[in-house]
Amino acid sequence: MCGIFGITGHVEASNLTYLGLHALQHRGQESAGIVSSDGHGLRAHRQMGLVADIFDAPVLAGLPGQSAIGHVRYSTAGGSLLKNAQPLFVQYAGGQCAIAHNGNLINAAALKEKLEADGAIFQSDADTEVIMHLLARSKQPTFEQKLVEALRKVEGAYSLLVLTENKLVAVRDPLGIRPLVLGRMKEGAYVLASETTALDLIEAELVRELEPGEVLVIENGVLRTSKPFAEPARLGRCIFEQVYFARPDSVLFGSSVYEVRKRMGMQLAREQPVPAADLVIAVPDSGVAAAIGFSQQSGIPYDVGLIRSHYVGRTFIEPQQSIRHFGVKLKLSAVKHVLKGKRVVVVDDSIVRGTTSRKIVKMLKAAGATEVHLRISSPPTKWPCFYGIDTPSRQELIAASHTTDEIARYVTADSLGYISIEGLGEAVGDADRGSFCTACFSGQYLLGEMAPGAPEQSKLTA
Ligand code: AMP
């Protein structure tokens, strides 16, 4: 997963890109980068770490020009290394070019092998570099035609921003897997971002979402749009963006993420009611909207039973062995006065390995909850994602090899209930499930990837 942001036609392009990336930080915390163009040449700064730690006034001053693109990275292909930080930036026969990619290409390894056999030298392990090589080798006459020819060869998920000396190009893959929106600032600058929350921060107005398969070129303030790819039979917007990944204040695939998550919680309460409970709490922050929906639908009061620390970074190294369980406590702490003697419904967005849920249930009981009923606003996660969500292999996905009852026992919950795939489809406004990818829950992959074989039984040990 990653976040991308781009702007053209503004004297403060790199400063605004910095702010846009800040708003998209939840989409990736490993590395960040900005490439700017002053119309003659491109300048780049990329570093490991968080946006606010990487960029300061002198760094941004070194990124001049009226156009810029930026990227926050959460590695799904290629290791968490500086060489894989984006935007990728190259000089080729046609000039300078930078590219920021959100998504995952499923045929990158095969393409890379062919290119390397042909003498190409790769500088990163990121699947995105394949696009650069294909573009540089294209014999097409114009930059856009080269880019389109390159993209016709790749398969998978890509929302892209490409910057040259004088153009900003935005592309969404034909299945529309990852989001990308177009906005406009009062002064006339055009902005592109993974999520609308980045537009809100810089007071840009949402113009529209890019269409699946759309190529949008902005040059000298003029927009040119085309749809050069074959139309697929169906769309594959990532349903996990709505479940977990996007920020609740964003409008995603045309719907408010907050409203959709609340509807998931209401649907969950209808499908998996808890007959007798005193309060509904959320696992913050990802479970909050669904917990409020669950409370409103069930009539069970909502309260704050868990507090999340905002100062725990992903870089935190857990202590070893005996004090290892402190890990989740650093992130979440229980409010004893709320929980003591109460029968609690706790709502979270997903169970992946099951380790977090187990720690949370134990924490709630240790804080005095007499019963803990766990409700999950997505169906059991049974299949890995090949399109850019960082899910582990099938062996590590607890629901791939265990029943709901077994998982309930493992996490030590008094009961466990998940929303159904159909119910989730209702909540996202796609009842016939024709426009969302649900592969992580259903195993029905968009591009006919071979579903991995039966998983080995994972071991449920503490
Ligand atoms: P687990 O302990 O593996 O079951 O983790 C489940 C928790 O991780 C839930 O609270 C989710 O909100 C969160 N989560 C789900 N998917 C992801 C992801 N791709 N990256 C990071 N966290 C996730």
TrEMBL record:
Cofactor: Mg(2+); [4Fe-4S] cluster
InterPro entries on file: GATase_2_dom, Ntn_hydrolases_N, PRTase-like, PRTase_dom, PurF, PurF_N
Catalytic class of the enzyme: transferase
Catalytic activity: 5-phospho-beta-D-ribosylamine + L-glutamate + diphosphate = 5-phospho-alpha-D-ribose 1-diphosphate + L-glutamine + H2O
Binding site for Mg(2+): S286, D348, D349
Residues of the active site: C2 (nucleophile)
Single Gene Ontology BP annotation: 'de novo' IMP biosynthetic process
UniProt binding sites for [4Fe-4S] cluster: C238, C385, C437, C440
An example molecular function term from Gene Ontology annotations: magnesium ion binding
Enzyme Commission number(s) from the entry: 2.4.2.14
Keywords, ordered alphabetically: 4Fe-4S, Glutamine amidotransferase, Glycosyltransferase, Iron, Iron-sulfur, Magnesium, Metal-binding, Purine biosynthesis, Transferase
Pathway annotation: Purine metabolism; IMP biosynthesis via de novo pathway; N(1)-(5-phospho-D-ribosyl)glycinamide from 5-phospho-alpha-D-ribose 1-diphosphate: step 1/2
Cofactor binding remark: Binds 1 Mg(2+) ion per subunit.
Keyword Transferase: yes
Domain Glutamine amidotransferase type-2 residue range list: 2-221
Family membership: In the C-terminal section; belongs to the purine/pyrimidine phosphoribosyltransferase family.
Function: Catalyzes the formation of phosphoribosylamine from phosphoribosylpyrophosphate (PRPP) and glutamine.
NCBIfam families: purF
The protein, known as: Amidophosphoribosyltransferase
Organism of origin: Myxococcus stipitatus (strain DSM 14675 / JCM 12634 / Mx s8)
Lineage of producing organism: Bacteria, Pseudomonadati, Myxococcota, Myxococcia, Myxococcales
Gene name, Swiss-Prot/TrEMBL: purF
